[in-house]
């Protein structure tokens, strides 16, 4: 679940994420280990999960993104997770707000949409 940020403050800045997995529809055009700068605007971004679930998602490589400098207290610096099929990714930073410098201070969010485009192109080939 997503809980209030550890500091109990609204967080609004560009966060650095590290790609932990590129085995999803949303990350297939990214390289594992790549850093992305993504707009983060939230008061409830603290990812909390019980130890059993944490062990399972770590073992199944379902952690997709980690914070470089965890702004909200998320367990294991997790910024994004995927379902078992890899077609759904949940994350707190907002890639859709990082598609042009004017609105998000970064264009790294375009990588998410390039990945979906690559996936769809491969499906139609």
How are the SSEs placed, and which strands pair?
Blueprint: E1 2-3, E2 11-19, E3 35-42, E4 46-47, H1 51-59, E5 63-67, E6 78-82, E7 89-91, H2 101-104, H3 110-124
Antiparallel strand pairs: 1-4, 2-3, 2-5, 5-6, 6-7
Q: Please, could you describe this protein's structure?
A:
This protein is α+β, with helices and mostly antiparallel strands and 125 residues long. Helices cover 22% and strands 27% of the residues. The chain has three helices and seven strands, in the order ββββαβββαα. The protein has helices spanning 51-59, 101-104, 110-124; strands spanning 2-3, 11-19, 35-42, 46-47, 63-67, 78-82, 89-91. It has a five-stranded antiparallel sheet with strand order 3-2-5-6-7, with no helix packed on it. A hairpin with a 6-residue loop joins strand 6 and strand 7. The longest helix is centred in the C-terminal third of the chain and has 15 residues, at 110-124. It is flat, with a radius of gyration of 14 Å. It starts with a strand and ends with a helix.
């Amino acid at each position: 679940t997503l809980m209030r940020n550890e500091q109990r403050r609204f967080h609004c800045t560009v966060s650095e994420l590290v790609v932990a997995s590129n085995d999803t529809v949303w990350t297939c055009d990214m390289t594992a280990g790549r850093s992305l700068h993504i707009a983060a605007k939230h008061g409830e971004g603290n990812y909390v999960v019980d130890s059993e679930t944490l062990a399972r998602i770590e073992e199944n490589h379902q952690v997709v993104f980690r914070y470089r400098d965890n702004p909200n207290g998320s367990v294991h610096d997790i910024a994004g997770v995927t379902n078992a099929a890899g077609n759904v990714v949940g994350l707190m930073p907002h890639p859709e707000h990082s598609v042009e410098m004017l609105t998000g201070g970064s264009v790294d969010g375009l990588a998410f949409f390039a990945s979906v485009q690559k996936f769809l192109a491969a499906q139609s080939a």
